[in-house]
Amino acid sequence: MSNRSINIKLFEPVIEQEEIDSVIRVLKSGWLAQGPEVEMFEKEFAEYIGVRYSAAVSNGTVALMLALKALGIGQGDEVLVPDYTFIATATAPLMVGAIPKFVDVDVNTFNIDIEDLKNKISDRTKAVIVVHLFGHPANIKAVKEVIGDKNIMLIEDAAQAHGAEAWGQKVGSFGDAAIFSFYATKNITTGEGGMVVSDKKEVIEKVKLLRNHGQISRYIHAELGGNYRMTSIQAAIGRAQLRKLDRLNEIRRDNAQLLSAIITSINAQYGNVIELPVEEPWARHVYHLYAIKLKDKTLRDYLYECMNSNGVEVAINYPLPLHSQPLFKSLGYKDCCPTSSNLALRELSLPVHPKLSRNDINTISMVLSKCIDNYIHFTSIT
Ligand SMILES: Cc1ncc(COP(=O)(O)O)c(C=O)c1O
């Protein structure tokens, strides 16, 4: 195989005439900053998720920070966080003065491990953040059972899981609050953007206060907030994206099925070298990423190099468990989570986005099996 530039990308936003028309409409209206368009996006998004209230903000990281603050989490509070996720899940607690404590993850779904949650939960725990990683719901029912009637806030980080369901109910509707990200790679996007959702009116009112400098009436400020607002331009794109979310997720699921069929035949030929993504029977996965697991780091790193240099963009999500990030090492965090550490050596994300054609999927298949073949040939002669 020859070296050439990437021609199948890992992510591609789906921007159609509807988004373009919506942006033009807002630009012509003259109301560019937060306004009625943002309110409409909030209302429609809350309806879609099945919650009563929502607040749009500038990004998912801010959404998490403000959700924590609005739930009363702050200085010195212990927040349980899965060890395997994007850094923002753990830095948001730090940003509000809280102390993240890492919980190991389930080897099948990459999501919070219930047994380790039972071990880590304590009298000091003030909140648990579950992440619906890669678009697969966390076992939220079991998490709720572990929390029981303790006074512990449950926050869902659904940054990667718009439209995912657990037991037929949308993620984002289970916790005391949930957050979403609309970053450019997400299942729906506003370029940058975020949303906090909750059934608790006071939580969303607090988020709305904090996102706008704690302003209670014009130039009267009751508490320390900031400018964390979403623009009307972003909201208009978001509304158009929301209308196509179910269609885009269906395409992601179809693509995932095609990839799984291809990998099953590669496994039949080469002896189960690749572990497929898992979908629990109670879950509806929305495949933000199609995350496979390889038997070890050598094969994973080989495939990473081989596929990227043969035109198929793949990524490692994530190369380090959070407790091993330089940031957390410098804060004195020690080894905590063997499964998470192991997954970081074996995970590889393949393209699954809705803009892939059948041809693209055939190319991914061809490149993947060629890379596996090269690897097996290479290791058998060395
Ligand atoms: C799991 C998770 N949480 C939080 C975030 C933060 O969202 P944003 O990038 O919009 O700040 C992301 C974004 O990548 C994420 O994947």
Keywords:
382 residues, Aspartate Aminotransferase, domain 2, Aspartate Aminotransferase, domain 1, 2 domains, three-stranded antiparallel sheet, binds pyridoxal-5'-phosphate
Topology diagram in text:
Elements: E1 4-8, H1 17-29, H2 36-49, E2 53-57, H3 60-70, E3 78-82, H4 88-95, E4 99-103, H5 114-120, E5 125-131, H6 140-147, E6 153-157, E7 165-166, E8 169-170, E9 177-181, E10 194-198, H7 201-210, E11 215-217, E12 220-221, H8 232-270, E13 274-275, E14 283-284, E15 290-294, H9 297-308, E16 310-312, H10 326-330, H11 338-346, E17 347-350, H12 358-381
Parallel strand pairs: 1-16, 3-4, 3-5, 5-6, 6-9
Antiparallel strand pairs: 2-10, 7-8, 7-14, 9-10, 11-12, 13-15, 15-17
Helix pairs in contact: 1-8, 2-8, 3-4, 3-7, 8-12, 9-12
Bound molecules: pyridoxal-5'-phosphate.
Classified in CATH, the superfamily of the largest domain is Type I PLP-dependent aspartate aminotransferase-like (Major domain)
Mean pLDDT: 97
What would you say the CATH architecture of the largest domain is? 3-Layer(aba) Sandwich
Please outline the major beta sheet: 7 strands, mixed
- Beta-strand fraction estimate: 15-25%
Count of discrete domains: 2
* Small-molecule binders: pyridoxal-5'-phosphate
